[in-house]
Design goal:
660 residues; alpha+beta; Glutamine Phosphoribosylpyrophosphate, subunit 1, domain 1; 4 domains; 6-stranded antiparallel beta sheet; 25 helices; globular
């Protein structure tokens, strides 16, 4: 978008597009509303300025492919040059008031919206005071009028998760936007002046408007390095995703994309007193959970036994028992792997006892059924990185079976609270570069005491991070050399991801990259698809942008202290959490017996898959090397399971989507 400024001094993107008939603010009804309407769903649309009328059958094919995302209602609108479609999953105010596509009063502006704007009740009075009139109690209508009032910058006023499209008939333009972290998906295809978009790729594939083909750049990054969802490109050539925190405008056959929010990882203006910081964190976290408990249907939570999901569960269980909520009981859902070393049953039980929840467990064991991975790929549309996604899929199935439509999850905390092993290297590097030798030595000794490695190894990792940027780029280049099993087509197509802007802090650069590039985007993708496959809305309190911005601005020592990650979270919730949870320093993650499954019940099916005469991956991988790696994995090297998994899931994906 241009930087044009109007005579009034405001950027053009913030100038009101039109005003409705004004009434004095004092005459606008200000009654208290209780049954607000929120709907999460699937959206789709086609804009073709060359076409007199968009084919409604194409649009309905797209929305039919999204029926699982919105089983409660559907709607389409076709106008000259545009068509919008919607599938609705109702969470609040289950009446038809929030039906979509939705228009303004004179039907000149139309919206399809997927998600929730949690603070729309606070935004609505401002719009009413400006003269906007409302016909429903939906957050969707508030966003529609916000666009009319504030233009392309309107989404910065909302807190929530969303993907949306607004058709502006007088200006003949389509405005699209995605939430700050990309919790809600938005995929699009642009060719020959036609812009198609949808919540999921399968909806775009449901039309004959594009040809199915593999994107070799994305495939190469995945098969070589396990990279997923790190950029705008998808596994399908010609299909892209709108970046998180961005809006897009399609007009005159041109697409313009710009950010409306960007994470400032360099901020350091938070409280420097630990107790004050912990109180601030706790207050924001409680409010984030409280907002996400608003629903006219039962709210549940997933529980892995880790620190993050446990924090959500104990907080939600406490809040949900408040008198005005009728003293409800929280239901929790967990995956179990009896006999597996990483089964977290003891921690799950500790949280269940502390929070007094109604617990449900699902034992995940695929028993050689490779079809379970095919089911997972059908809902994901793109390859996944491990069997952990299958375990989460089974948990969502259990949630559905028990009748819940809304579930709270602990996703998102690891990325900005430094929850992953290895993130301490950047912190140690900053201590080294800042000549803070005493603090560095204290942290290294604490890591050794906790069994997190030896001092030489930890110091070596820190020095690699502390090296000048030119040397670090050279090291990354050597580390990212393409493996020999990649076929010529992928090796030639491979392009390294564009390097992000350099930050002076190695630690904060790592936090930013985990949030925006290497981890969170994929985790949000698989979480959304798994939940919506069963018509379930997943809500993520840790990704309330206020909490993220607040925590990023805190001193780094509040994120890692005494070799303990997520220090501020532990301090803020230590009175609520079971002692064994608050004191956990191991990071298990959502591990599954993946290697055991592939060497055991899946062995025969995998051997047949990788040695089949109709091996579709042959166009992308050297089959001889793939089979050699498979045999090494079976014979003596179980650590190759992640690589073998990528070979398996890519071949299954090619077959399922008839690619190759």
């Amino acid at each position: 978008m241009s930087g044009h400024v109007t005579p009034g001094g405001r950027p053009a993107s913030q100038v009101p597009l039109r005003r409705h008939e004004r009434r004095p603010a004092a005459t606008i009804p200000r009654r208290r509303r209780r049954n607000w309407s929120l709907a999460v769903c699937g959206i789709a649309g086609i804009v073709d300025f060359r076409s007199a009328v968009v084919d409604e059958t194409l649009l309905r094919a797209m929305t039919d492919a999204l029926a699982h995302r919105g089983p409660d209602d559907e709607g389409v609108i076709c106008r000259p040059g545009m068509g919008l479609g919607h599938r609705r999953l109702s969470i609040l105010d289950l009446s038809p008031a929030g039906r979509q596509p939705m228009s303004n009063e004179d039907e000149t502006v139309w919206i399809v919206f997927n998600g929730e704007a949690y603070n729309f009740e606070q935004v609505r009075p401002e719009l009413e005071a400006a003269g906007h009139r409302f016909r429903s109690t939906s957050d969707t209508e508030v966003i529609l009028h916000a666009y009319e009032e504030w233009g392309d910058g309107c989404m910065a006023r909302f807190n929530g998760m969303w993907a949306l499209a607004i058709w502006d008939e007088p200006r003949r333009r389509l405005f699209c936007a995605r939430d700050r972290f990309g919790k809600k998906p938005f995929h699009y295809h642009l060719a020959d002046g036609r812009f198609c978009f949808a919540s999921e790729i399968k909806a775009l594939l449901a039309t004959p408007l594009l040809r199915r083909a593999v994107n070799p750049r994305t495939a190469a990054r995945f098969l070589a390095f396990g990279q997923l969802d790190a950029g705008e490109e998808t596994f399908f050539a010609g299909i892209r995703r709108l970046p998180a925190g961005h809006y897009a405008v399609f007009e005159d056959g041109r697409l313009t994309i710009a950010p409306y929010w960007q994470l400032d990882a360099s901020r350091r203006d938070g409280p420097t007193d630990l107790q004050e910081a912990a109180r601030g964190f706790r207050d924001l976290f409680d409010d984030a959970v409280r907002l996400r408990l608003i629903s006219d249907v039962p709210v549940a939570a997933t529980l892995s036994g880790g620190l993050d999901s446990s924090s959500v569960v104990v907080t939600a269980a406490e809040l949900i028992r408040e008198p005005h909520r009728g003293g409800q009981e929280l239901a929790t859902f967990s995956a179990r792997f009896p006999g597996f070393v990483a089964d977290e049953g003891e921690y799950i039980r500790a949280v269940e006892d502390r929070a007094a929840v109604r617990s449900h467990h699902r034992t995940v064991d695929i028993q050689g059924r490779i079809e379970e991975y095919e089911n997972l790929l059908r809902c994901q549309d793109e390859p996944v990185i491990s069997s952990a996604m299958l375990a989460n899929y089974e948990v969502m199935r259990l949630v559905h079976e028990q009748g819940s439509k809304v579930v709270l999850e602990g996703q998102g905390a690891d990325e900005y609270l430094a929850g992953y092993p290895g993130m301490e290297a950047g912190y140690h590097a900053d201590l080294f570069r800042g000549l803070r030798w005493t603090s560095l030595w204290s942290e290294l000794r604490a890591h050794v005491r906790l069994g997190n490695g030896s001092s030489p190894a930890l110091l070596t990792a820190a020095l690699k991070q502390a090296a000048p940027e030119k040397l670090r780029r050279a090291y990354r280049s050597r580390r990212n050399a393409l493996p020999g099993y990649l076929g010529p087509a992928l090796a030639e197509a491979h392009e390294p991801l564009e390097e992000p802007p350099v930050l002076s802090s190695r630690f904060r650069a790592e936090l930013r990259n985990r949030i925006t590039r290497h981890f969170l985007p994929f985790y949000l993708r698989y979480g959304d698809r798994n939940a919506m496959a069963f018509g379930i809305e997943s809500r993520l309190p840790f990704l309330d942008y206020r909490l993220v911005e607040y925590t990023i601005a805190l001193p780094d020592r509040f994120k890692i202290s005494r070799a303990t990650r997520k220090w501020i979270l532990r301090q803020a919730l230590r009175e609520r959490l079971p002692a064994e949870i608050a004191a956990r320093t191991d990071k298990i993650g959502f591990l599954t017996p993946q290697a055991a499954w592939m060497r055991g019940p899946l062995r025969e099916r995998l051997t047949a898959l990788l040695t089949a005469s109709e091996y579709r991956s042959a166009a992308y991988l050297d089959r001889n090397q793939v089979v050699a790696i498979w045999n090494r994995f079976l014979e003596h090297d179980p650590t190759l399971d992640t690589k073998v998994f990528r070979f398996m899931i890519f071949e299954l994906w090619l077959r399922l989507f008839d690619l190759g």
